[in-house]
Amino acid sequence: MSSSPSPTARVGRLAVTAVALCWLAVLFDGLDMFIYGSVLPHMLAEKALGLTPDQAGDLGSYATFGMLVGALTAGTVADRIGRRKLMVACVALFSLASGLCAMAGSVEVFGLGRTLAGIGLGGLLPTAISMVSDYAPRGRAALTIGMLMTAHHAGGILSAYVALWVVEPLGWRAAFWFCVLPLLFVPVLARFLPESLSFLVAKGRAEEARELAGRYEVELPAAPAGRQAATDRWNALVNLFRGGEWVQTLLYWLASFGGLLLVYGVATWLPTLMRSEGYNLGSALTFVVLFNLGGIVGMLVAGRASDRFGAPRISAIWFALTAAGVFLLSVHMPLALTFTVVFLTGVFLNSAQTMIYATVSIRSRPENRATAVGWTSGMGRFGAVFGPWLGGQLLAANKGDWGFTAFALAGLSSMVFIGIAALRGSTGTARTGGEKELIGAH
User: What is the mean pLDDT of residues 83-100?
Assistant: First the structure.
């Protein structure tokens, strides 16, 4: 007598397929994002493309500006063509853009490549998060998103080893050629990644949705009561500023600005700043590995801590600890102690920003939640653009020590803003435990 797999096993197989493919895509996203910072010390040392520190900061901001464009347009594009097609297009775009960087004969062409790569990087991450949220086992969405976000930091670790093993013998261009390899993953993603069932149902493609649900033997999502009109989306944005909500909204936006300034400023300049403190390239790249290992640990720890003590409180404490860690990096300490500080800074920094999104998600009304989180992330992206530029300007002025101080001040500002928002929000309506969803998007 044959027996069919249990519903849990079926859902598990579907989750593994979708999450594994999304995890690999985000791994390549992290590799492409961090590779510039990992090879930057080498590029500056050999004056590649005639690069100066202030131009290097500008180039770092080009990628984050592209990410801003990609993140803000991803939802609209995904609603038209589907999440699977958008993920495939994003991986193809940032892989090909890395090829353009590898072939660049001028700073301008290199900058165009980084901007295009940023558009792909910015579009991929929120789309992948949406995909794994659709296919995660019931009650495990936060854990699944946390697992997905570890891929981004694993990509950062991989970037350090690519720089260490490839750049020294072959030159900086070889590192960007390495980042073209994810193009080989595109056919695999296109062939095996399932489309979002909720997208198919929402677009009225019921037959295709039933066929996919039957293939994976999972339950078909219920059709939405109605599509949200443009006016409804506009009202959702306006609601963020009605009454006294505008103060809370601005506090979240300012906290997100400082948080992403810190995240992307440190990601771009950490190896270079550490070399300016007298460490050799090998040690500087080890800092990148430890920083991203800390990020992986932080993503897995922060959610549990927030469930117990509250996301706003954890975010404020995490930013304070991040600021202390970043400032300590300006002090020349014994190497082992510096390694420890870099690791702990990675633990707190990367998940502090995530807890801002979790706070916004928890404290927003259900009908406004997606808009509130999306705009908080979008406003923070301006900080992501500003951070790499700021580091470049300080290095160009021979004030590298001030780079750590400036980034530490950004962490303190985010601590203050999210702390005030937490105090103001503590008098608001209590939320149920089911609303405490971890939104793990940079």
Answer: 93
d(CA 268, CA 275): 13
pLDDT > 80? residue 142: no
**Measured between alpha carbons, how far is residue 229 from residues 69, 239, 333, 368 in Å?**
22, 15, 57, 14
How far is it, in rounded angstroms, from Cα 346 to Cα 289?
Answer: 10
* C-alpha to C-alpha distance for 305 and 146, rounded to whole angstroms: 13
Residue with tokens 């950490």: 270
Ramachandran assignment for 63, one of left (phi > 0), alpha (psi -120 to 50 degrees), beta (any other): alpha
C-alpha span between 437 and 442 (Å, rounded): 15
The 3-state DSSP class for residue 81 equals helix
How far apart are alpha carbons 68 and 142 in whole angstroms? Answer: 24
Please state which of the ranges 43-52, 124-133, 197-206 shows the lowest mean pLDDT: 197-206
**Helical H runs in 107-244?**
107-135, 141-162, 168-170, 172-178, 186-192, 197-202, 206-216, 230-238
Residue 164 zone, left/alpha/beta (φ > 0; ψ -120 to 50; rest):
alpha
The tokens describing 34, both together, are 């961090």
User: What is the separation of C-alpha 222 from the centre of its chain, rounded to a whole number of angstroms?
Assistant: 30
pLDDT digits (tens, 9 = 90+) for 150-192: 888 889 889 888 988 888 788 899 999 999 999 999 999 998 8
